[in-house]
Amino acid sequence: MEKQNRLAVLLGPPGLYLLILFLLPLGIMAVFSFRAGTIGDARFIYTLDNYREFLTKTSFHRLLLISARIALTIASLSVILAYPLAYYLTFRAGSRRVILLTMLIVPTWTSYLLRIFAWKLILGSTGLLNTFLLWIGAIEQANPILLYSRNAVVITLLYVWVPFVALPIFAALERIDPSLLEAAADLGSRPWETFLRITLPLSLPGVMAGFFFALIPTLGEYVTPLLVGGGQGAMYGNLIQDQFVRALNWPMGSVMSLAMLVLAIPLLFLFTKAGGSDLVEF
Amino acid sequence: MTELTVELRNVSKIYPARRSSGKDVVAVREVSLDIPSGEFFTLLGPSGCGKTTTLRLIAGFEQPTSGEVYLQGKAVSKIPTYKRPVNTVFQNYALFPHMTVAKNVGFGLTVKRVPKAERERRVMEALELVQLPDLANRKPSQLSGGQQQRVALARALVNRPTVLLLDEPLGALDLKLRKAMQLELKQLQERLGITFVYVTHDQEEALTMSDRIAVMNYGEALQVGDPMTLYEKPANSFVADFIGESNFVRGTVKQVDDDEAQIAIGRKVIAVRLEEERPSPNQNVLLTIRPEKLWLSEPDEQADGLPGVVEEVVYIGTSTRYIVALEAGDEIVVRLQNRPGTKMAGLGRGAPVKVSWRFEDARIIEADGRGEELVIG
Lengths: 282, 377
Ligand SMILES: Nc1ncnc2c1ncn2[C@@H]1O[C@H](COP(=O)(O)OP(=O)(O)OP(=O)(O)O)[C@@H](O)[C@H]1O
Ligand SMILES: [Mg+2]
Fold this sequence. Notes:
Oligomer: heterodimer
CATH class of chain A: Mainly Alpha
Largest interface: A-B, 22 and 26 residues
Structural class of chain B: alpha+beta
Mean pLDDT of chain B: 89
Order of helices and strands of chain B: EEEHEEEHHHEHEHEEHHEEEEEEEEEE
CATH topology of chain A: MetI-like fold
Helix content of chain A: over 70%
Number of domains of chain A: 1
Number of helices of chain A: 12
Bound molecules: adenosine-5'-triphosphate, magnesium ion
Low-confidence stretches of chain A: 277-282
Strand order of the largest sheet of chain B: 6-7-8-3-9-10
């Protein structure tokens, strides 16, 4: 009894918080998705038309798939870039580790928007990158594709995510007992093989955490595409935003949001599985 | 059989100070060892004396600051760990948590690309050797400490190393299991004929298992010898004290003859046999005598033996310990077997006694050159 009470006290506040601010809005959104309109009498007519329309609009599906692909690309690249960073910090940085770790985190203390605007300055046609490429003679003309494209979105989001993805990988590598690596060498394993057979599998929970850490938010991302993606770089999140803000079609926006949720759930399921030790096996 | 498998020549290992204010740590100091093949060799010493570091130098996890390690006659300082014909049983076992017992044991064969069929056969053989064939598919976390220890052993032995390094492999086991494993390890070593370099801080374990022992302290190998030599002829007071129990009695040399010296202890002068140490007259020396080599009798001014008073009597089953305060100043421990008819059985605290020993049982182990006071311990 005692124990149950204590559990209730601990879980109560966050539970209530999630209920009011997460599950309730989700329910409201589900209700909205069946309404015939956003305002007026249409609000009180419930219909499946929105769903029918969504299912027939291939342009929506295409953008959803493209967004999923971009999110997967960004999550994968983040892991690939963050892993060596985390590895260096754990095994090679020695006494500089704390300083380097801080340097990795410090940029995230400035505003997210500010950092993305900074990328506009770097990628723009008179930006840092173009000017530099012109100066060294790598290109003839300022290249406008750099800004307002999918590439710009990928580059910017990678920059945003890498430090965050590095942290769980760092934590996982940090937990590896160094004597395991010595034992592997002792048994005749070359450094590279030790990495593949011991270090990498033991760090997989961190890799998975980092991967989904970048993947899920990127799937619904709309600020970065808006700022550096332009028309070409738009993602599914921008489409949803349009429905709510510009088209004032809340029911459609709700359907689209729910569709994304449905896509994300299997991914999240994978995530919880990866968090356990099951995946850490040959 | 006189072929040397492991050789250390003046090996030192200095760990640089962590902070600029700190001091460098000399973990191993000018250690030279010759370990012939097939020997059960033990590094024995208190915590922090450099046993693990010595093993790590042989395995290649650390590079000597100076000196050289030879394996089968070859200098190995440029040979990385993974190429050395040496395997280690780690103190914490270091089993790979994400692999089954069979995968753990087979790891060395896998990375050496031993074909699957042979690998599986040898893994099963190794698991049978350590009596764990049924646990092949378990994960390390599902094993008891003793079972993990056996898996670690199998994982090393399956590679048929020339030298097996064992770092306090029984340290985490309870006393009974430890005793059983000591016997098992010793038998295994004799059967396989592999050179064992075994680390322990337990002198009893070292004495029961080893062919030869190196006693270490503060990074130095103080004495290397077989168990009996170390026990009977300790080279210095540290070894005498660390291996078994020893008494130390201070005295002054009166006269030195061919093979014996007359030593003054208090107002008594006692003849002591001379071995390697040759003290000169008026030198202060330290005598060492094992507690079980002493006996007690009624005080008697004429005969040899040191007068004293019983300070404490401790009954410990098969024997009784008497702590006697010698008239000359030092304290001495006497251990008498509890046999029927032992005359001293009723001796109590405060009783005046005489402590005696056979001529050959006392040894001079330290002599200082300047006639200064010797410090015991
Ligand atoms: N990596 C290291 N850096 C600095 N000092 C070290 C390092 N490893 C060991 N030492 C120091 O070297 C000395 C010898 O250590 P070592 O581990 O060899 O002792 P040990 O005899 O194995 O002791 P124990 O019985 O406690 O395991 C100790 O003073 C220890 O603090
Ligand atoms: Mg040690």
